[in-house]
Amino acid sequence: MRREKLVAGIEAGITSMHGLIAHGRGEAFDYLIGERTMDSALQATEVAAAILVSAKKPVLSVNGNVAALASAEMVTLSRLIDAPLEVNIFYRTEARVKRIKELLERSGAKRVLGEMPDARLASIEHARGLVARDGIYTADVVLAPLEDGDRCEALIAMGKKVIAIDLNPLSRTSRYATVSIVDDVQRALRNIITIIRGKNPDRNADPDSILANYDNNRILRAAINEIAGRLVNLG
Q1: Are the C-beta atoms of 106 and 74 separated by less than 8 Å?
Q2: Which of 156, 94, 145 is nearest to 122 (CA)?
Q3: Theoretical Cys-Cys bridge with 19: which of 15, 69, 101, 170, CB 3.0 to 4.6 Å?
Q4: What is the pLDDT of residues 91-129, one digit of tens each?
Q5: What does the alpha-carbon distance between residue 59 and residue 44 come to, in Å, rounded to a whole number?
Q6: Could you give all domains of the chain from N- to C-terminal order, each with its CATH number?
Q7: Each residue of 212-221: pLDDT tens digit?
Q8: Rounded-to-integer distance, Cα 203 and Cα 81, Å
């Protein structure tokens, strides 16, 4: 079903052909983790939910694959925490950005940025460096599902907290992010939404205090160990 959504996304001019390669890589890791949310991923998800709720200016970044696979979840989360969505894509054309924006709006989005970027991330020469000043550029927390490593690194260098959703625990994105959720994007987003609705994290908490006892490297090591343990048991 996910593959069909991406193919439909290409036909609609939303997803790039290169996005299929990225999805295939992630799909391979999803097989390794058993197409489920691992304990380590759930720990990271709970921390991510708390940070998103307590952030002063969170922004949810959307690329072509995210739009095709999880536009409804992104819109639901956006409305739940009152955060704008921002279209940010590597293979940028104005037509693609407009189509993604329109898809999000049809899914119920109230505020979608990125169509007219007016700032650039330092050290990022390609199109993903083009951002909205009132969005990613001045955000304190950025949710970046299906991220690319150099932009994640640039955002961290700017002092932002980055929540990444990446099925590959070995990627540069996972290693640089503040919180790395090693999970499928739809599962992760649905889990974040469920946690916010159910546990109702403290909206007045300080994100730094939430992270005081959180070790992202430990989470990544746990994810790798869970994958390795599952493979040994399968053997």
Answers
A1: no
A2: 156
A3: 15
A4: 888 989 999 999 999 999 999 999 999 999 988 888 888
A5: 18
A6: 2-234 (3.40.50.12640)
A7: 999 999 999 9
A8: 10
